[in-house]
TrEMBL record:
PROSITE patterns tied to this protein: THIOREDOXIN_1 (PS00194), THIOREDOXIN_2 (PS51352)
One GO molecular-function entry: protein-disulfide reductase activity
Organism listed in the record: Chloropsis hardwickii
Positions in coiled-coil regions: none
Span of the signal peptide: none
Keywords annotated in UniProt: Disulfide bond, Electron transport, Redox-active center, Transport
Record lineage: Eukaryota, Metazoa, Chordata, Craniata, Vertebrata
Domain of life: Eukaryota
Family: Belongs to the thioredoxin family.
GO cellular component, one term: mitochondrion
Protein name from the UniProt record: Thioredoxin, mitochondrial
Length: 141
């Protein structure tokens, strides 16, 4: 009986086509599309340095407590900007070469990049208002 009821509820859900017609895909969000993990130096070059959009680069580490607070906070604000800015996440333990190249001496370090150039940066944790101001300055809002 319980299985039949569960099956009836499942069948009553709208079809995937109905979800797509509202411009939303099941299980995705704007944050997922605008935020990505850098895979290697070549990926960084292609998706960050050569990006036509401004990119926020979050240099972080798994063992870094403040990074675990800042990362999700920054991702949330980037997703609210609906594609006006991208966010690249760079784990300094996996990509030491990029950390050295961009003179990252502490984590979290966040760079604002436009047309392949670093135009702003901060080190440490920031509150949402400060992050919002940082992002608005980057996109010129």
């Amino acid at each position: 009986m319980a299985q039949r009821l569960a099956l009836q509820r499942l069948l009553a859900l709208p079809a995937r086509g109905a979800l797509a017609s509202h411009g939303r895909a099941f299980g995705t969000s704007a944050g997922r599309r605008s935020t990505f993990n850098v895979q290697d130096g070549s990926d960084f070059q292609d998706r960050v340095v050569n990006s036509p959009k401004p990119v926020v680069v979050d240099f972080h580490a798994q063992w870094c407590g403040p990074c675990k607070i800042l990362g999700p906070r920054l991702e949330k604000l980037v997703s609210k900007l609906e594609g006006k800015v991208l966010m690249a996440k760079v784990d300094i333990d996996d990509h030491t070469d990029l950390a050295i190249e961009y003179e990252v001496s502490a984590v979290p370090t966040v760079l604002a990049m436009k047309n392949g150039d670093v135009v702003d940066k901060f080190v440490g944790i920031k509150d949402e208002d400060q992050l919002e101001a940082f992002l608005k300055k980057l996109i010129g809002a």
